[in-house]
Amino acid sequence: MIVTTTSFAQHSLLLIASDIPSAEPKLVSLDWLAKGQQWSESKSLAPLKKRHQLMDDDFQFIDENSLSKDNPIESLLITTITQLQQYLKGERQQFDIALDWSLGTPFQQNVWRALQQIAYGDTISYAQLAQNINKPTAYRAVANANGKNPFSIIIPCHRVVASDGGLGGYTGGLDKKRLLLQLETLS
């Protein structure tokens, strides 16, 4: 796995791409890092290690400024960073990145696909998201799947709020959820 970090609105994002030989490069994780947190301390690594039977040595960190467009996996990370910068500037509303969905169960993947249908700048409730996947009583399971989304920002789980209008939760922290929602309403 190739790992890099990038700055996003004064926060750090961790990006991990698959470098499986003979496979199309895919992003496997995009997650927020806490202030001062090293990439190797990210909670994103544990599920990847378990799912793909990886060890610490299977993760190669490459500084963002050292990524090469000549390497397909690194090129994918460069494209992801570029699209994130465009999103931050209000120039992009959807992402076009190859994603590896394998960390999710079929139910979680269904929820994640439904998240991609929420329009830029809109919000819906967890209950509405459950209805959107034809599981109207599964709003708690939907909220749990939302929290397991391995592609923060790209799969816009930040667009789901509580039924009472409150923010609900966000794995990256409510400050980041507020940031993303404000960004989308100001564009």
Q: Globular, elongated, flat, extended or rod-shaped: what is the shape?
A: globular
The number of helical runs is: 6
* Spatial strand order of the main sheet: 3-2-1-4
Number of separate strands: 6
* Average residue-wise pLDDT: 92
Task: Please state the structural category.
Answer: alpha/beta
Uncertain regions spanning at least 5 consecutive residues:
none
Taking the alpha carbons of the first and last residues, their distance comes to 34 Å
Q: Let me know the largest β-sheet.
A: 4 strands, mixed
Radius of gyration: 16 Å
The proportion of residues in beta strands is: 5-15%
Helix content: 25-40%
* Element string (H = helix, E = strand): EEEHEHHEHHEH
Explain briefly what this protein structure is.
The protein is α/β, with parallel strands linked by helices. The protein has helices at 45-52, 72-88, 106-115, 126-132, 139-147, 174-186, and strands at 2-8, 11-17, 27-33, 60-61, 124-125, 160-161.
